[in-house]
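Observation: inputs received (chain + nicotinamide-adenine-dinucleotide).
Thought: call the complex predictor directly.
Action: predict_structure
Action Input:
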Amino acid sequence: MTDNNQTTSNTDSVLSTITSIDQLQAQFSRLQALSRTQPILDWATRATQLDNLDALLSDNQTRLAKAISADFGHRSVSETQFAELFPSFTGISHAKKHGKTWMKTRRASISPLYLPAHNEIQPQPLGVVGIMVPWNYPLYLAIGPMIDALTAGNRVMIKMSESAPQFADAFAKAVAHYFSADMVCVVIGEVDIAEAFSKLPFDHLLYTGSTAVGKKIMAAAAPSLTPVTLELGGKSPVIVTHDVNLESMVNRVMMGKTLNAGQTCIAPDYVLIPRQYHERFISLAKEWMQEHYPNIDNNQDYTHIINHAQFKRVQGYLQDLPADSIHQLTDVAVNTETRLMPPVIVTEPAADSDVMQNEIFAPILPLIHYETLNDAIQFVNARPRPLALYVFGNDDDDIEKVRTHTVSGGVCVNEVIIHVAQHDLPFGGVGHSGIGAYHGKTGFERFSHMKPVFVQAKINGMNLLLPPYGELFKKGMALLLK
Ligand code: NAD
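Observation:
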């Protein structure tokens, strides 16, 4: 890692970082005016923005990872590298490799009835894109949408989370250094600024965060008819089929639940699993913890809970459960002061318990039994549609059945979480877990107007359709309407 902060300087550093509602309005108006006078940015300009993003990350990765760690009390730097920096760098490379092709006007098919005319799709930048970032992966969830919006030729305003203030500050400084304020600016502040931000008449607003706030964002965007992409949360289930390799399944599920201490939107939230596997699951999970997070009370690889409000919320989930349903996976107790929370499994929590009514977003893993695969599928389908669904098993028919009969934002088969890093797959939710998707080409199109253009030929048959409607027209219509 290097931390060389020497690169392009910003001509308007005041408005690169916005901290008040007045500045917010002024900078938005300025970016909007620019997007109307210079609506189309060529590939060279877009590629330069991607290069700036790449340089910002390359030169500041240690600083940014340390800021995230400070916000969490402790966030493993390796996790920041693996889960935030790596997909950011590969996302930039992917966009640089394909963006020039994505932005080209392309032919679309046409019915022979309209020949020799032809159809085209012409991607155009939308203008000014707003991005709202949560605290759990504050780097990747700022950079990911920026990659797509900048590749599509937009200007960008980003509202950072007030719950990760040190990262927000470090990120704002870095953006001011690497980007012109005419292209990208960062907004810092509490919920009042977030509310004002969500009311700005952006050409598109991408919000990542909780479903509850997502509803407020959609309401705030409605008066200006601002199109929204909502990347929300929810309870992402794991379905373990009867024919399964238990060891490798537990390995992947535990990786997903312990990454960022469970504070991951697509973390496995709960596990539907035949009852005869419960005990073995718990003992394998204990062994897994010993192997991968030994001495968890002093382990640099394990992340802490972001703040006291979140810590209190998730500890509260455990208080209401019967003591014999809670299975500690380590012999280390929670530390309220440092917000260290070693993972626990809870068996058969009631459907109306807090832990089953809310997205857990912490290292608590419920195991719930089912009898038949249909029961497991019905359990999922009786609840709001999840952001992710994970199915484990060796029987292709079982896997196919689960994939086909459930609806979720995305799916991994015999894996968790990794689908988010596939730049050739759209990423997003469905129903209460989100509206719209982005990443890669899907993200480019999300932030573009894919303008349909019909190009008429010099010689064409349109005059045959003009009034007065005579015999020729009637015969033609009779043929067409058959
Ligand atoms: P949050 O909804 O509290 O905050 C997200 C953003 O919304 C922040 O920038 C905040 O400033 C802003 N905000 C808060 N209250 C607001 C209001 N009243 N009006 C306007 N803006 C407001 O979410 P969070 O706690 O930061 O993040 C956790 C949630 O995000 C979880 O539910 C998680 O599943 C979800 N999430 C989803 C994804 C995804 O890609 N789908 C990724 C990460 C996190």
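Thought: report the result.
Final Answer: The CA atoms of residues 366 and 461 lie 67 Å apart. The longest strand covers residues 118-125.
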